[in-house]
Each structure stands twice: as structure tokens, then as C-alpha cells.
Specification:
- The structure is a single chain.
- By secondary structure, the chain is mainly α.
- Helices cover 76% and strands 0% of the residues.
- The protein has helices spanning 2-19, 27-38, 51-86, 98-112, 114-117, 121-141, 149-173, 178-189, 197-216, 218-224, 228-233, 238-259.
- Helix 4 (98-112) runs antiparallel to helix 8 (178-189) and helix 9 runs antiparallel to helix 12 (238-259).
- It is flat.
Length: 260
Amino acid sequence: GFFAVSLSLLVLLIVLGVSVGSTQVPVAVVLRVLAAHLWPFGGFDLSDISAGQQAIVWQLRAPRVAVAALVGAALAVAGTQMQGLFRNPLASPDIVGTSAGGALGAVVSLVSGLAMRQMLALPLFSFAGSLAALFAVYVIATRRGRTPVATLLLTGIAVSALLAAASSFLISLTWVRWEIAQEIIFWLMGGLDNRRWTHCLLLLPCVAVGLSVALTYWRELDLLLAGEETALALGVEIEKTKRILLANAALLTGAAVAVS
């Protein structure tokens, strides 16, 4: 029911997202080009479709739409896990520092010039920053093998503020180099321009692993919503589950931040 309708709407919006733009491409052309590249057995004749339209569909718009769909899925699953873990519908992955860590990693790659020399440097630095931020938050918040949710939340807020200040400091140092400062600001604002299939391939394994872990731990997450005492009484390994869910949320958020 609900999932069938949602999946149908997703497919429809993907096709429209590739079709609509400054240069309109007919939906029939979009479907044929996508089918020709995705169908493993071939058999599609694209000789009547111009090379320009094929490039617009497959090389420019399709990667952006694919990345947008994967980023949305990653952030949705990560957000759901955080809401269940903190038992708060307003909780999000950035409260444990992953977003600020990813932003700082990206800023470092841009300031050092690595992002200009290697396309993969920026997403890799951003991803590493997200995981490093989560590790720091977890280590600071953990005492005697236990990680209270309230302490984790407060630590995440403090570390996020510290990392955001570090990013601002690096930006201020590069302000005289206008082109680098401009690139940093544009990246921090987010966007899908210049996204290619390489970015999609970087994100896809992370989303696949994150979704698999989320589906594996759905029961534990449901029980945590009832409180840690109730979950513990029903056989949930609280601290182990927290670590796995936090790491999984960081994986999904870090990957999403890195490519968007």
C-alpha cells in the first residue's frame, strides 16, 4: 500500500527530475536512454536521439538525481535512528557532531588544495571528518563502559560548536584567496552541481550497508523507544546497540554530507 505508492512516486519524480530543466527532454526519450544504459541485455536503438540529449540525460542529470535520491534515503534512515535512540522526534544526526565534522573535513581539503588536485579528496575528507567527530563525541561521553543519552547529546552539541568554530577560523584564514573561500561557502551551502556517477558509486555502498544495519536492528530500535530499562529487560544489549546505531548513523550522514 503505502510503500508501493511511495516507490511509484519516487520513480515518477526521478524521471521528471531528469526530464525537466533549462533544456526540456521528452519523458519518452528519458525512459529510452535510461533503459538503454541500465538494461543489461541491450536491444535499445538510440540512433534517432541526438548525442546532446543522450549526454544531458545520462551524463548530466541522471547522476544528480541518483545522488539526490541516495542522499535523501541516507539522511532519512539516519534521522530515524537518532529519533529512536534519543526518543525525540526532533533529533537528527547532526546533534552528535557528524555534520560539523564532515564540514570541517571538507574545509580542510579545500584549504590545503587537495580538493583541487583530486576529485575524491573532498568527499573522502568529509567522510573521515564525520567519523572522527562521532568517535570524539562517543569517547568523551562514555564513562565506565556506559554512554548516557543525555551526556551524549550535550557532548555532541559542544563538539559540533567547536568544529563549526574551527571551520569558520579556517575560512577566515583563506578569505584573501577569494576563489578558495568562495568554493568553501558554495560547498557548505550544499548542492548537486557537477555530481557524476563517481559520486553515486561512492555513496551507494554506504547507503546499502546503512540500510542493511537499520533493517537488522529495527527490533532493538523499537524497544529503545520504550526506554532503556524496558529494552534491557527484554534482552537488548543497550551499549552495543547504541554503538552500532551511532556508527551507522555517522556512516550514512558522513556519506551524504560528503557528496552533497
